[in-house]
Automatic annotation (TrEMBL):
InterPro entries: HTH_MarR-typ, WH-like_DNA-bd_sf, WH_DNA-bd_sf. It comes from Novosphingobium capsulatum. This is DNA-binding MarR family transcriptional regulator. SUPFAM superfamilies: Winged helix' DNA-binding domain (SSF46785). The keyword Zinc-finger does not apply. The lineage of its organism: Bacteria, Pseudomonadati, Pseudomonadota, Alphaproteobacteria, Sphingomonadales.
Length: 158
């Protein structure tokens, strides 16, 4: 489907300073641009795999925590429950995530990856590792730990 954008592939063009001059020192603007660029690069790197960039983290968290419920997943991923519900519905339709009623609290569902979800995650792990290596090469090994610490601090305190 040439010409069609995939989720996460916003128009991430080279900044034209004429239009963004007033944003040069706005950290939030550059964080958003970096996230969009990262998502677009990740989408390109996974090729024909039909997974939105944000879904990788959900699959990884569910894989690492089989039986996690939606509230726990929301807290772990930093996503609000309404956004998460739509993503889980799509992951379920794709056959990647299975939901089972919680035996104690029947209002809740426990989540786990299906066999197809585990296979998809294994394939995505290879792509994610290559994507992270690319980001690491841009940041540089001497800045990696500091960069991660600053991002985590921003997430925790905002």
């Amino acid at each position: 489907m040439a010409g069609k954008k995939r989720r996460g592939e916003a128009a991430v063009a080279t900044e034209d300073r004429q239009w963004t001059r007033g944003l040069d020192d706005v950290i939030a603007y550059h964080l958003r641009r970096a996230q969009e660029a990262s998502f677009a690069a990740y989408s390109r790197s996974i090729g024909e795999i039909r997974i939105w960039p944000g879904w990788y983290a959900l699959l990884r968290i569910i894989y690492d925590n089989p039986g996690i419920n939606q509230t726990e997943l929301s807290a772990a991923s930093g996503r609000d429950k309404s956004t998460l519900t739509a993503s889980l519905r799509e992951l379920g339709k794709a056959g990647l995530v299975e939901r089972e009623r919680d035996e104690i609290d029947r209002r809740n569902f426990r989540l786990k990856l299906s066999a197809a979800g585990e296979a998809q995650l294994a394939e995505l792990e290879l792509k994610a590792a290559a994507h992270n290596a690319r980001i690491d090469s841009i940041i540089g090994p001497e800045h990696r730990d500091l960069f991660l610490a600053l991002l985590k601090e921003l997430s925790a305190r905002l």
